[in-house]
Description:
- The chain is an alpha+beta fold.
- The strands form nine sheets. Strands 17, 23, 24, 28, 29, 30, 31, 32, 33, 34 and 35 form an eleven-stranded mixed β-sheet that branches. Strands 1-2-46-43-42-41-36 form a seven-stranded antiparallel β-sheet.
- A hairpin with a 3-residue loop joins β23 (264-268) and β24 (272-276).
- α2 (436-457) crosses α15 (707-718) and α4 (489-501) packs antiparallel against α6.
- The longest helix is centred in the middle third of the chain and has 22 residues, at 436-457.
- The model is unreliable at 1-17 and 459-468 (pLDDT under 50).
Amino acid sequence: xxxxxxxxxxxxxxxxxxxxxxxxxxxxxxxxxxxxxxxxxxxxxxxxxxxxxxxxxxxxxxxxxxxxxxxxxxxxxxxxxxxxxxxxxxxxxxxxxxxxxxxxxxxxxxxxxxxxxxxxxxxxxxxxxxxxxxxxxxxxxxxxxxxxxxxxxxxxxxxxxxxxxxxxxxxxxxxxxxxxxxxxxxxxxxxxxxxxxxxxxxxxxxxxxxxxxxxxxxxxxxxxxxxxxxxxxxxxxxxxxxxxxxxxxxxxxxxxxxxxxxxxxxxxxxxxxxxxxxxxxxxxxxxxxxxxxxxxxxxxxxxxxxxxxxxxxxxxxxxxxxxxxxxxxxxxxxxxxxxxxxxxxxxxxxxxxxxxxxxxxxxxxxxxxxxxxxxxxxxxxxxxxxxxxxxxxxxxxxxxxxxxxxxxxxxxxxxxxxxxxxxxxxxxxxxxxxxxxxxxxxxxxxxxxxxxxxxxxxxxxxxxxxxxxxxxxxxxxxxxxxxxxxxxxxxxxxxxxxxxxxxxxxxxxxxxxxxxxxxxxxxxxxxxxxxxxxxxxxxxxxxxxxxxxxxxxxxxxxxxxxxxxxxxxxxxxxxxxxxxxxxxxxxxxxxxxxxxxxxxxxxxxxxxxxxxxxxxxxxxxxxxxxxxxxxxxxxxxxxxxxxxxxxxxxxxxxxxxxxxxxxxxxxxxxxxxxxxxxxxxxxxxxxxxxxxxxxxxxxxxxxxxxxxxxxxxxxxxxxxxxxxxxxxxxxxxxxxxxxxxxxxxxxxxxxxxxxxxxxxxxxxxxxxxxxxxxxxxxxxxxxxxxxxxxxxxxxxxxxxxxxx
Length: 804
């Protein structure tokens, strides 16, 4: 249809006809998962084809049989009529979900007119539920933790009946890879995800139905120390479901066989690997191998440790790279330099006519003589051969940009391929514009986020992340970006639980999380804000309060810890950043408490007291600035809402003036991390002031914030795609672009809980603006062109002249 409005040509492609469909049904943000180990999983859905359907209420039913569900006899759970516009529900805590069971669910929704929509049937499958005791035992070998070669484990078994399903549940400390009948099951790396191991250990679940055969079978597990500080251990349970209705469990116990991993003389992420590829070995991964010379495993108890399902995505290979430059240093030494940082492992391709020792020094840079500055060293032994040998070092993990390879004798050939490994999260958004410089920064942010997530989750590797940040700081820098462009909810929820695991009896938290080494220092108000900020961001993007609920008590304890450090004026007294973030943290606690129905009166009282105390100590009313004329401090105070109302306009002018001046003495003395935060809040202040020209200049100059902030600014300010804080989860959102004269186009999209939201504009040759925007079903938006108007679901294309 065509609609003409005051010179605007509006073409709506909204779905006005046809049936409304419920699509993209997920449990715990995963399609048909088989790894649910909680009684109250989250269920969500969307309405397809930009349907003009606005949910008023819904009923969710859960059953053990699809036929029961279709006949309206849900035997597990019925939510009853829930009055809510959000396509989301969490099952009650007291629902009796049995372990290793498939549950079927569907949604019946209605709009305000009573129109009914019934979803297809979806399912989720439970795992070893957290309340269930494992029949399996932790097993290891009898060698000391200092023995360098890690253990391997194997168990043969015979399947005499026809099976229709097989599930394997496995955990390990540090990491493992496993094989069924010689075949690697899933190409996951460094599983399970790292925790501090003192409170929680994750397990992984795999469907291995197609790997099991009638007759002899074998499970074979390789291990690595990873970041575990003791001898590697595993726990494992295999469940076979037979056609005759019976089932069989095969679990780890003292009858499993173990030996040291013959080719890995040492395998430690921090100390490096010693790998011997020279001996010929019979394949112990296959059934029929003679393991009579192996020892029986040793059963081990780990009291007080929770074993829970790893809901967050595994680590998987994201790319293979060849060196961009190979430099010969001598006849036995070469440098292999890659175009970007690699987070993962290598594969060697060598021709060696006799046994050869290869030393591989990994680093991020070279010295003035061209030698790699190593952060870790691997040693590989290869046997003599007439043909090429490929040696895959997938059980190692390093962060590097260059490798110095030295051999004890010249080789006919030596080549290297590098493999990037990252969390297997999906891209759910992006921002691009006509400015090549800003686009490059956005691409760099995406690449960095993808390829540093393992380092983010294992903070000992943070040396490779833009200047040695602690993990709380990195989480602060990336959480908005990660939620905007990546399906990172489960990853951030895992991180928040890691932070809670570091919390001490006094309420303090560590700057490093997870912290398997117990080495993290106590976080201050600045970095500790991650504990409050990330749950808040998750709620804003999804309207899901689970992360707030699970961390609220920890947030309150942390704020009480900060309060114990304050002086007589109620401030922390360390510096302005600390006091400012103390105010901000209290405001976040107030907001988070309100989202889950908690009493906020104490937060409101403290808010008023901190507002007065900070302005009394740090605000110069004559100069209209904070912290001795600091640009960053003044911008931060403005961004956090600390400026008294009567000084708002004057402080805005002061920020504009300071933006054109060299950094003041206070700003020059900041640490790199504080400087990065200062630039972030300067951009936020300029954007809040709608001083987009100054903001664009900041992004183009030497004070540019992180690439993550560039991406967020392009999406929220230039493309104008913004959350409405009054209706979180994009139930209603805002499109208010900045039609920059320095750009000819800009666009951004994001996958919201209701579907894809999009805003994209370009400047026509006659100077008019062409704007296209996309609003999914069950959603509305307020759009600003040359006027402001509300829209329902559909794809819209608008051409207009900007207002004078």
